[in-house]
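Hi again,

Forgot to attach this to my earlier email, sorry! This is the prediction with S-adenosylmethionine bound. I've pasted everything inline since the attachment limit keeps bouncing my files.
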Amino acid sequence: MISAGIKERGAYFTPLDVAQSLVRWAVRSSDDRLLDPSCGDGQFLALHPNAVGVEWDAATAGVASQRSPGSIVHVGDFFDWAARTQQRFQCAVGNPPFIRYQRFNGETRRRALEHCGKLGVRFSALSSSWAPFLTAAAGCLASGGRMAFVVPAEIGHAPYARPLVRFLCQNFDVVHLIAIRERLFPTLSQDAWLLYADGYTGSTEEIRLTALDRFRSSASPPRSFRRVPVARWEAFSHRVRPFLLPDDTLDLYQASAASKSVCRLGSVAKVGIGYVTGANDFFHLRPSEARGWDVPSKFLLPAVRSGRSLPPRTLEKSTVENWLERDEACLLLRVTARDELPVSVKSYLDSPEGEEARETYKCRNRDPWHVVPDVTVPDAFLSYMSGAGPSLVENRAGCVGTNSVHVVRLRGNMSLKQLQRSWDHPLSRLSVEIEGHPLGGGMLKVEPGEAARVVVPRNGRPFSADELNLLDLGRRTLMRWRHYDA
Ligand SMILES: C[S@@+](CC[C@H](N)C(=O)[O-])C[C@H]1O[C@@H](n2cnc3c(N)ncnc32)[C@H](O)[C@@H]1O
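Structure tokens for the complex follow:
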């Protein structure tokens, strides 16, 4: 059996009080058969004598068998087992492995996606392991069965969580999510929520959501919850996370977003990723290196290499002059396929550094290898990974930008000054929190598609002081949920 590292297997074990709460709710009679699809060392199995666990790692499975002698523990891949078993369970509990798509690959992923496909759920190749795990675990339930799991907070916003949430609503009478702000796993930067789903083979038109500051042991999910109609979840980009906001804030946000005096960023600007060189250190020269190699200035463009190097509002020529004076590696070697290359540039390309660069994945896969594609001088840059929120920075310096910043080009008739004013509006700032996603460590990330959906006020719809306050409070609420305290 494969015995890989903790991270590869997503092997983070659940605190006892959390496991006890989930099992106490899921098991309704001593005859109930309980499944833990990724049982680890048997934390859940040990809480119920009539249990079946599956665990990939043989050594860990051995510990589980010792800890819960009444249980049956299968060693191997859960998806393989789930595709073959005829057994059905009254309940399933556990904490599925959270293996991101880059590592969740090969045969296991193929089997997982195929099995989920048979259950009617199509996951993309970008799906992390836990979402197919929950789907396949549900598929092992008997009619009327229930399941209770620790789930990554990604269930509230990740695109790959959509098919899972939809499947849950289409297959359970009750779907209840418990968002927990304080970390269940104090040593991980990953936030975890709880999922309770009851009445398998039923269906529901709503998602229940309870937001808690910290986990509380209990034999059942909290009685107080908010009802999120599935249709409203869909209207919020299929995300549960915005519903952490109070009703009045959400109502104001939705009404404002629908008003004519407001538009989406994507309708007034095109947001894209910056260029990808494949070998940043080679393609970005220091002024002293450019002089040393005698590279003509027409082949060099000043480049923004990191969101951190952006000033808050305007990138002036004087900033670039400072970079050059400090001899920073900020000059992109920019040649096109049509350019007649001077000897100096040819010798730089043929230098040992050039030999190394052309072997990188990106360079190997383009022709000619030294022509960096998609280099444009945008109207503005957007820092897309930040704690306080992304800034929209006017490009007055004629710079190009690597993929560590987003590049923004205006379209339509809003000027950049207007757009910057709108971007700073409490409505847009809340919208960025709603459309972007938390990245751990207090950071917010905004992908180009997410940025395009951000709502920007167009021509000064008047907001009352109370409304502005509400929007700002909403933004702070979501920032607190991503652990950024302004
Ligand atoms: C997050 S841990 C949870 C363990 C235990 N249920 C708990 O909460 O304490 C996930 C477990 O899933 C196991 N695992 C990972 N991929 C698996 C797979 N494809 N099939 C079965 N188990 C797997 C890992 O080895 C790890 O022990």
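Residues 261 and 460 are 7 Å apart (CA to CA). The domain at 6-241 is CATH 3.40.50.150 (Rossmann fold).

That should be everything now.

G.
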